[in-house]
Amino acid sequence: MPRRRPARLARLGGARASGRIGLLGGSFNPAHAGHRHISLLALKRLRLDEVWWLVSPQNPLKPTSGMAPFADRMRAAAALARHPRIRASQAEAELGTRYTIDTLVALTRRLPRARFVWLMGADNLGQMPRWAAWPDIFERAAIAVFARPTYSLKALAGKAARRFARRRRHPAEGPCLARHPLPAWVFFATRFHPASATAIRAQRPVAAEPGG
Question: Which of 28, 55, 160, 205 is the most exposed place for a label (fewest CB within 10 A)?
Answer without folding.
Answer: 205
